[in-house]
């Protein structure tokens, strides 16, 4: 390659501290850039140049950083200590520390010498096109002002990272939003270690999300209401009455909020917390976040559209340290095992309500059907086997009526003969 990518990063690029999500407007693709004479190499190390967290540290954050650095220099630091440091206020403080501690939290090999396969080697995978499409949609998850060459390398690395995991574990299914999780680790620890982290998470924390159907994921989202029912009954009643459901929280759970937050510092702080927490903790954070916005919920109309619109958009000014502390307290009071009965009851009620709704709709539709369609329900299946359209049903009905008439006529004739004494058994 003509020059290392690091030489092309300007000081301004190194100081960015926030990013925007979900910008579908960018159509820069590899072919366009190659047409402009820009070259790049796959497996290019872009990790060290992605400086989101150059904001000045507060005095409290400095003290936390010193504590983490001291723990890194102490060979006796155990997993419980790493979890405590990640959970406590300010988390792991900056990406340089996260790069060292995140692998320790998941007990994965931090060695970066392993080489990933080239993108061309994975292009025949059945999920390739969908993964590329999602990666292209998430361009604004990359550092603002990133040079073309480095961005292309990152896009390819992200695509390779995702495909490597689902190829190694064929029973796992890629879902839209998985790339939001993967890119966060890629930006912080690089492609080699991020593969090991995603491999571990995909077979543990995210495993249910990667099943062939979303049945278990939908079930898990009901924990949100079970938590609110215990912690804030008034808020639970409002949400339940509005019938807003759980869809507003689905991207939160699937992406660990990476898809929904606009501040990079908030995203990586939450990832510190989730890596040190049990798998269902994102649901407790979701409940805590909704509680944090309870007054906003009370101030708007109690209807599905209004509340869904409000909750699905997360403001930039939330105090996530407060939200995380509340989530930890709620988890201690109401661990998942304690809520399981409430969740099952809610799911069963939803199933019963859905059946009633379907029956009501079916009856309403039946009332509006023409007579020939209503008769369909009273005709035997064998008669309808070859008559699946309007005129076929009419013909079948006429045939049945003619047969009935013939039967009655024959019966009437027989009865007349019997009365005349001409009937012989």
From TrEMBL:
Region (Disordered): 1-35
SMART domains recorded: TBC (SM00164)
One GO cellular component term: endoplasmic reticulum membrane
Record-annotated membrane-spanning stretches: 391-408
Keyword annotations: GTPase activation, Membrane, Transmembrane, Transmembrane helix
Superkingdom of origin: Eukaryota
GO biological process terms, semicolon-separated: endoplasmic reticulum to Golgi vesicle-mediated transport
Start-end of Polar residues biased regions: 1-10
Domain Rab-GAP TBC: 92-278
InterPro entries in the cross-refs: Rab-GAP-TBC_dom, Rab-GAP_TBC_sf, TBC20/Gyp8-like
Signal peptide: none
A GO term for molecular function: GTPase activator activity
Keyword Membrane attributed: yes
Keyword Iron: no
Pfam family for this entry, one: RabGAP-TBC
Protein name (record): Rab-GAP TBC domain-containing protein
Biological classification of the source: Eukaryota, Metazoa, Ecdysozoa, Arthropoda, Hexapoda
